[in-house]
TrEMBL record:
Pfam families: Gln-synt_C (PF00120)
Source taxon at top rank: Bacteria
Principal EC category: ligase
Gene Ontology molecular functions: glutamine synthetase activity
Cofactor(s) this protein cannot do without: Mg(2+)
Family designation: Belongs to the glutamine synthetase family.
EC number(s) per entry: 6.3.1.2
The name this protein goes by in its record: Glutamine synthetase
């Protein structure tokens, strides 16, 4: 978990004046950082033990609306406090902000000091604990794609998000010259993350104009999720500081590729030394453990989609021929499939889930994937044959749910997820999904007006 920056390091930096602010953050349902900016001296003297926040932070939508219908929090219950308990192993400097450090917090019940079950970090920790009881450890890497714009966030909003100017004018997938033009932002992101204790592998251009990807080294599941939320916040803050804007919308424009967050998964022994997915004698190098795990992913692919695609917009990404999958099948090194086998015949063998968009909450997505995989291992599910060819054109094969409405129903009705997460947790996120759908259903879109203004 270590970001290579300790509490003793922080106290030293506070003493010499190089750090004067500490961000104490919880992660909300949307995967955003919410919290307080502490005077650093007060944090090292007192607040490092705990602080508090309103419990509505885990029951709001994108607009921070106080949504009705949640069991855990409501006007009737008075919107009391949660306790935020800093996890000092997540402490890190924030090089792109002057004199600043950051720590992530676990969210505890204010009265019992037990973890709040529907807190994203607690949900993932529960699944990690299940693996630990089985003598296993998950290593995960998340790729993150986004679009970079030359306008600021304020300018984009003022324009009604029309006539936005992308950082490039043509497909820049792996394109060195084009990405050179964007290095002022991308170098700052790479170096800033590295300075924050997040080991960066690379950045690259992606498959549309203005589209970027940042990749960091894999880690255990909780560490990777922690890195993921810091990365997204860093990208936005760094772009903003340079007069630019970044979006992690899964599908920002009909004519552009979607933005994904592919999730690479493998299981290892508890000490992290023995790869449990590898069998050198197998055709692909897949162990029986891996086959059962992947079978679980596929068996529950429909049920877990909500946690990979949590918004109305998320489902606009699933279009044939765009490198976003439409079929929940597995295949060897095949980017048309929802689940791609990578690193076959090596100790680095892993399964890549290509279903998730860049808008996902990493804790929830990883927890759902692990829960599905664990179910496959516990029940020793048999893995179906690998799909071969173009999965977009595949007939009579498992499809990714087409809408949020479908995914919500499948998630809510999942016996596996209710057993893994708890009824209250699934009911909580079902309500969040229902509210997203309700908000969309009553809105009038530009498409509807342009289509029917004259012709209706």
């Amino acid at each position: 978990m270590s970001a290579n920056y300790t509490f003793e390091d922080l106290k030293s930096d506070v003493a010499d004046g190089s750090i004067d602010t500490v961000l104490a953050c919880l992660v909300d349902m949307q995967g955003r950082l919410m919290g307080k900016r502490f005077q650093a001296q007060f944090f090292v003297e007192s607040a490092y033990e705990e602080t508090h926040s309103c419990n509505y932070l885990l029951a709001t939508d994108m607009e921070m609306e106080t949504v009705s219908g949640f069991k855990a929090t409501s006007w009737e219950k008075g919107y009391g406090d949660y306790t935020m308990k800093p996890d000092l192993s997540t402490l890190r400097r924030v090089p792109w902000l002057q004199g600043t450090a950051l720590v992530l917090c676990d969210v505890l019940d204010h009265h019992t000091h037990e973890e709040v079950p529907h807190s994203p970090r607690a949900i993932l920790k529960k699944q990690v604990g299940r693996l630990e009881a089985m003598g296993m450890k998950a290593f995960i890497a998340t790729e993150l794609e986004f679009f970079l714009f030359d306008q600021t966030y304020e300018q984009a909003q003022a324009s009604g998000y029309r006539s936005l100017k992308l950082a490039s004018t043509y497909n820049e997938d792996y394109h060195i010259f084009q990405t050179t033009k964007e290095e002022d932002v991308m170098r700052a992101i790479r170096n800033g993350l590295q300075g924050a204790g997040i080991p960066v592998e690379n950045s690259k251009g992606e498959a549309s104009a203005g589209q970027e990807e940042i990749n960091v080294r894999y880690a255990d599941a909780l560490t990777m999720a922690d890195r993921h939320v810091v990365i997204k916040n860093a990208c936005k803050e760094i772009a903003w500081s340079k007069g630019k804007a970044i979006t992690f919308l899964a599908k920002w424009n009909y004519n552009a590729a979607g933005s994904s967050s592919h999730i690479h998964q493998s299981l290892w022994s508890a000490d992290g030394k023995t790869p449990l997915f590898f069998d050198k004698d197998d055709e692909y190098g897949m162990s029986e453990t891996m086959k059962h795990y992947v079978a679980g992913l596929l068996a529950h692919a429909d049920e877990i989609t909500y946690f990979l695609a949590p918004y109305i917009n998320s489902y606009k990404r699933y279009m044939a021929g765009t490198f976003a999958p439409t079929k929940a099948v597995w295949s060897k090194d095949n980017r048309t499939a929802g689940y791609r086998l990578c690193g076959e015949e090596t100790k680095g063998i892993r399964i890549e889930c290509r279903v998730g968009g860049s808008d996902l909450n990493p804790y929830l997505a990883m927890a759902a994937l692990l829960a599905a995989g664990i179910d496959g291992m516990e029940k020793k599910m048999e893995l179906e044959p690998a799909f071969e060819g173009d999965a977009y054109g595949g007939k009579d094969i498992r499809e990714i749910p087409h809408t949020l409405r479908d995914a919500t129903s499948l998630m809510s009705g999942s016996t596996m997820l209710r057993a893994a997460f708890g009824d209250d947790v699934i009911d909580h996120y079902t309500r969040a999904a229902q509210w997203e759908q309700e908000e969309y259903d009553r809105r009038i879109t530009d498409w509807e007006v342009a289509r029917g203004f004259e012709r209706a």
